[in-house]
Amino acid sequence: MMQTELDLFDPGAPLQPQWVAAQAVVLPGFALPQVEALLPELRKVVAAAPFRHMLTPGGQKMVVGLTNCGELGWVSDHRGYRYSPFDPLSNQPWPALPEVLLDLAGRAAALAGFAGFRPDACLVNCYRPGNRLSLHQDRDEQDFSQPIVSVSLGLPAVFLLGGQVRNAPTQRIGLRHGDVLVWGGEDRLRFHGVLPLKPGAHPLLGNLRINLTLRKAG
Ligand code: SIN
Ligand code: FE2
Predict the structure, then answer these.
(1) Strand pairing class (18-21; 171-175)
(2) Global pTM?
(3) Considering every ligand atom, which ligand is closest to the CA of 211?
(4) Whose CA is nearest to atom 2 of ligand 1?
(5) 49 or 14: which carries more pLDDT confidence?
(6) Number of domains observed in the structure of the chain
(7) Closest approach atom of ligand 1 to CA 136
(8) Is the CB of 211 under 6 A from ligand 1?
(9) Can you give the pLDDT at residue 8?
(10) CB under 5 Å of ion ligand 2: residues
(11) Which among 12, 85, 139, 172 is least buried, having the fewest CB atoms inside 10 angstroms?
(12) Strands 65-70 and 121-127, bridge-based pairing
Protein backbone atom coordinates (compact mmCIF):
# COMPACT_ATOMS: atom_id res chain seq x y z
CA MET A 1 0.00 0.00 0.00
CA MET A 2 2.66 2.43 1.12
CA GLN A 3 4.83 1.46 -1.83
CA THR A 4 2.01 2.16 -4.31
CA GLU A 5 1.46 5.62 -2.89
CA LEU A 6 5.14 6.38 -3.09
CA ASP A 7 5.24 5.30 -6.75
CA LEU A 8 2.18 7.36 -7.59
CA PHE A 9 3.52 10.54 -6.12
CA ASP A 10 7.16 10.21 -7.07
CA PRO A 11 7.69 13.07 -9.55
CA GLY A 12 10.68 11.19 -10.99
CA ALA A 13 8.65 8.09 -11.86
CA PRO A 14 8.27 7.70 -15.62
CA LEU A 15 4.69 7.70 -16.88
CA GLN A 16 3.39 4.29 -17.76
CA PRO A 17 3.15 3.10 -21.35
CA GLN A 18 -0.43 3.20 -22.64
CA TRP A 19 -1.36 0.42 -24.98
CA VAL A 20 -3.93 1.72 -27.46
CA ALA A 21 -4.08 -1.49 -29.55
CA ALA A 22 -2.42 -4.92 -29.38
CA GLN A 23 0.79 -3.62 -30.97
CA ALA A 24 0.43 0.13 -30.61
CA VAL A 25 1.64 2.00 -27.54
CA VAL A 26 2.00 5.59 -26.36
CA LEU A 27 5.13 6.24 -24.32
CA PRO A 28 4.25 9.49 -22.51
CA GLY A 29 7.18 11.89 -22.28
CA PHE A 30 9.62 9.26 -23.54
CA ALA A 31 11.52 11.78 -25.70
CA LEU A 32 11.70 14.54 -23.06
CA PRO A 33 15.24 13.72 -21.86
CA GLN A 34 16.50 14.01 -25.47
CA VAL A 35 14.69 17.19 -26.52
CA GLU A 36 17.55 19.49 -25.66
CA ALA A 37 19.94 17.44 -27.81
CA LEU A 38 17.37 16.88 -30.53
CA LEU A 39 16.25 20.44 -31.28
CA PRO A 40 19.63 21.75 -32.53
CA GLU A 41 19.95 18.65 -34.74
CA LEU A 42 16.50 19.28 -36.14
CA ARG A 43 17.38 22.90 -36.86
CA LYS A 44 20.37 21.68 -38.89
CA VAL A 45 18.15 19.28 -40.83
CA VAL A 46 15.66 22.04 -41.63
CA ALA A 47 18.45 24.45 -42.62
CA ALA A 48 19.74 21.91 -45.18
CA ALA A 49 16.32 20.64 -46.30
CA PRO A 50 13.64 23.26 -45.56
CA PHE A 51 10.00 22.48 -44.90
CA ARG A 52 7.98 22.56 -48.12
CA HIS A 53 4.40 21.93 -49.21
CA MET A 54 4.48 18.95 -51.53
CA LEU A 55 1.86 18.29 -54.17
CA THR A 56 -0.42 15.28 -53.91
CA PRO A 57 -0.56 13.04 -56.99
CA GLY A 58 -3.89 14.80 -57.70
CA GLY A 59 -2.16 18.22 -57.75
CA GLN A 60 -3.31 19.57 -54.36
CA LYS A 61 -0.83 21.39 -52.15
CA MET A 62 -0.41 19.60 -48.80
CA VAL A 63 -1.10 21.93 -45.87
CA VAL A 64 1.40 20.31 -43.52
CA GLY A 65 5.01 21.41 -44.13
CA LEU A 66 7.29 18.47 -44.69
CA THR A 67 10.93 17.50 -44.93
CA ASN A 68 13.06 14.42 -44.26
CA CYS A 69 16.32 13.16 -42.89
CA GLY A 70 17.92 9.76 -43.35
CA GLU A 71 19.05 7.70 -46.31
CA LEU A 72 15.55 7.86 -47.75
CA GLY A 73 12.93 10.59 -47.67
CA TRP A 74 9.21 10.40 -48.36
CA VAL A 75 8.18 12.51 -51.34
CA SER A 76 4.96 13.21 -53.19
CA ASP A 77 4.31 14.76 -56.60
CA HIS A 78 2.25 14.15 -59.73
CA ARG A 79 4.02 10.80 -60.11
CA GLY A 80 2.75 9.54 -56.76
CA TYR A 81 4.08 8.83 -53.27
CA ARG A 82 7.46 7.16 -52.85
CA TYR A 83 10.78 7.23 -51.03
CA SER A 84 13.75 8.92 -52.64
CA PRO A 85 17.41 9.18 -51.57
CA PHE A 86 17.44 12.76 -52.88
CA ASP A 87 15.72 15.97 -51.83
CA PRO A 88 13.88 17.09 -54.97
CA LEU A 89 14.45 20.76 -54.03
CA SER A 90 18.25 20.47 -54.03
CA ASN A 91 18.87 17.15 -55.80
CA GLN A 92 21.17 16.40 -52.87
CA PRO A 93 20.93 13.49 -50.43
CA TRP A 94 18.70 14.19 -47.44
CA PRO A 95 20.52 15.27 -44.26
CA ALA A 96 21.67 12.34 -42.13
CA LEU A 97 19.41 10.96 -39.43
CA PRO A 98 20.74 12.38 -36.15
CA GLU A 99 22.24 9.71 -33.87
CA VAL A 100 20.13 10.92 -30.93
CA LEU A 101 16.99 10.15 -32.94
CA LEU A 102 18.20 6.73 -34.12
CA ASP A 103 18.92 5.81 -30.54
CA LEU A 104 15.60 7.13 -29.26
CA ALA A 105 13.64 5.29 -31.98
CA GLY A 106 15.46 2.03 -31.31
CA ARG A 107 14.74 2.20 -27.58
CA ALA A 108 11.08 3.14 -28.08
CA ALA A 109 10.55 0.35 -30.62
CA ALA A 110 12.17 -2.19 -28.28
CA LEU A 111 9.80 -1.18 -25.45
CA ALA A 112 6.91 -1.77 -27.84
CA GLY A 113 8.19 -5.25 -28.66
CA PHE A 114 10.16 -4.49 -31.85
CA ALA A 115 13.77 -5.20 -30.98
CA GLY A 116 16.53 -4.20 -33.42
CA PHE A 117 14.60 -1.40 -35.16
CA ARG A 118 17.03 0.66 -37.24
CA PRO A 119 15.20 3.35 -39.24
CA ASP A 120 16.57 4.62 -42.56
CA ALA A 121 14.00 7.39 -43.01
CA CYS A 122 12.54 10.13 -40.86
CA LEU A 123 9.65 12.20 -42.14
CA VAL A 124 9.42 15.56 -40.38
CA ASN A 125 5.98 17.17 -40.42
CA CYS A 126 5.36 20.75 -39.35
CA TYR A 127 1.78 21.66 -38.34
CA ARG A 128 0.46 25.16 -37.78
CA PRO A 129 -2.84 25.93 -36.04
CA GLY A 130 -5.72 24.66 -38.16
CA ASN A 131 -3.56 22.14 -40.06
CA ARG A 132 -4.83 18.57 -40.08
CA LEU A 133 -3.74 15.30 -41.61
CA SER A 134 -6.50 13.22 -43.12
CA LEU A 135 -6.82 9.49 -42.49
CA HIS A 136 -4.25 7.45 -44.38
CA GLN A 137 -2.15 4.31 -44.12
CA ASP A 138 1.65 4.30 -44.14
CA ARG A 139 2.25 1.82 -46.92
CA ASP A 140 5.06 3.16 -49.06
CA GLU A 141 7.65 1.19 -47.06
CA GLN A 142 9.03 -2.17 -48.24
CA ASP A 143 8.63 -4.24 -45.11
CA PHE A 144 5.46 -3.93 -43.02
CA SER A 145 6.96 -6.13 -40.30
CA GLN A 146 8.95 -3.01 -39.30
CA PRO A 147 7.13 -0.61 -36.94
CA ILE A 148 6.60 3.15 -37.17
CA VAL A 149 7.95 5.31 -34.35
CA SER A 150 6.41 8.78 -34.03
CA VAL A 151 7.85 11.55 -31.84
CA SER A 152 5.71 14.60 -31.10
CA LEU A 153 7.15 18.01 -30.24
CA GLY A 154 5.61 21.42 -29.59
CA LEU A 155 1.87 22.01 -29.45
CA PRO A 156 -0.34 19.09 -28.42
CA ALA A 157 -2.49 17.34 -31.01
CA VAL A 158 -5.23 14.76 -31.21
CA PHE A 159 -4.09 11.72 -33.16
CA LEU A 160 -6.78 9.53 -34.69
CA LEU A 161 -6.09 5.82 -34.69
CA GLY A 162 -8.47 3.99 -36.96
CA GLY A 163 -8.77 0.44 -38.17
CA GLN A 164 -7.75 -1.56 -41.21
CA VAL A 165 -10.35 0.12 -43.40
CA ARG A 166 -10.91 3.85 -43.84
CA ASN A 167 -14.41 3.96 -42.39
CA ALA A 168 -13.65 1.91 -39.24
CA PRO A 169 -14.20 3.74 -35.93
CA THR A 170 -11.27 5.85 -34.72
CA GLN A 171 -9.93 6.41 -31.22
CA ARG A 172 -8.63 9.83 -30.22
CA ILE A 173 -5.19 9.85 -28.66
CA GLY A 174 -3.73 13.03 -27.16
CA LEU A 175 -0.08 13.48 -28.13
CA ARG A 176 1.95 16.07 -26.24
CA HIS A 177 5.46 17.43 -26.46
CA GLY A 178 7.85 14.54 -25.86
CA ASP A 179 5.34 11.73 -26.34
CA VAL A 180 6.33 8.79 -28.51
CA LEU A 181 3.84 6.52 -30.25
CA VAL A 182 4.90 3.19 -31.73
CA TRP A 183 2.70 1.04 -33.94
CA GLY A 184 3.57 -2.15 -35.77
CA GLY A 185 2.76 -5.81 -36.26
CA GLU A 186 -0.95 -6.38 -36.70
CA ASP A 187 -1.55 -2.63 -36.20
CA ARG A 188 1.04 -1.49 -38.73
CA LEU A 189 -1.48 -0.68 -41.47
CA ARG A 190 -4.12 0.98 -39.35
CA PHE A 191 -5.52 4.18 -40.83
CA HIS A 192 -4.45 7.24 -38.85
CA GLY A 193 -4.56 11.01 -39.00
CA VAL A 194 -4.41 14.19 -36.95
CA LEU A 195 -7.29 16.56 -36.04
CA PRO A 196 -6.88 20.27 -36.82
CA LEU A 197 -4.19 21.72 -34.57
CA LYS A 198 -5.51 24.06 -31.88
CA PRO A 199 -3.74 27.42 -31.61
CA GLY A 200 -1.38 27.81 -28.68
CA ALA A 201 2.10 28.83 -27.65
CA HIS A 202 4.62 26.17 -26.78
CA PRO A 203 7.57 27.45 -24.70
CA LEU A 204 10.15 25.88 -27.04
CA LEU A 205 8.40 25.74 -30.42
CA GLY A 206 5.88 28.57 -30.36
CA ASN A 207 2.77 27.98 -32.44
CA LEU A 208 4.04 24.81 -34.11
CA ARG A 209 3.74 21.10 -33.77
CA ILE A 210 6.60 19.04 -35.18
CA ASN A 211 6.11 15.33 -35.67
CA LEU A 212 8.91 12.98 -36.58
CA THR A 213 8.02 9.57 -37.97
CA LEU A 214 10.85 7.10 -38.14
CA ARG A 215 10.55 4.25 -40.57
CA LYS A 216 12.52 1.47 -42.13
CA ALA A 217 11.55 2.36 -45.67
CA GLY A 218 14.02 0.49 -47.87
C1 SIN B 1 1.95 10.84 -40.05
O2 SIN B 1 1.03 10.05 -40.04
O3 SIN B 1 2.80 10.84 -40.94
C4 SIN B 1 2.10 11.87 -38.96
C5 SIN B 1 1.33 11.60 -37.73
C6 SIN B 1 1.45 12.72 -36.72
O7 SIN B 1 1.69 13.87 -37.10
O8 SIN B 1 1.28 12.47 -35.51
FE1 FE2 C 1 1.19 8.37 -41.40
Answers:
(1) unpaired
(2) 0.94
(3) 1
(4) 193
(5) 49
(6) 1
(7) 2
(8) yes
(9) 56
(10) 138
(11) 12
(12) antiparallel
CB of 151 sitting under 6 A from ligand 1:
no
Q: Which ligand is nearest to the CA of 213?
A: 1
Contact 183, 147 (CB under 8 A): yes
Q: How far is the CA of 176 from the centre of ligand 2 (A)?
A: 17
- Does the beta carbon of 68 lie inside 6 Å of ligand 1? no
Q: Which of 140, 177, 135 is nearest to 159 (CA)?
A: 135
What are 10-22's pLDDT values in tens digits?
556 668 999 999 9
pLDDT confidence band for 2 (50 / 70 / 90): very low
4 CA to centre of ligand 1 in angstroms: 35
CATH code where residue 187 lies: 2.60.120.590
Query: Which atom of ligand 1 lies at the shortest distance from residue 211's CA?
Result: 7
Asked whether the beta carbons of 67 and 50 are under 8 A apart, the reply is yes
- For residue 209, give the ligand 1 atom closest to its CA: 7
pLDDT at site 15? 84
Q: What share of the chain has pLDDT > 90, as a percent?
A: 93
Domain range enclosing 57: 2-215
Nearest ligand by distance to the CA of 189:
2
Q: What is the pLDDT of residues 142-193, one digit of tens each?
A: 999 999 999 999 999 999 999 999 999 999 999 999 999 999 999 999 999 9
Is the predicted pLDDT of residue 58 greater than 90, yes or no?
yes
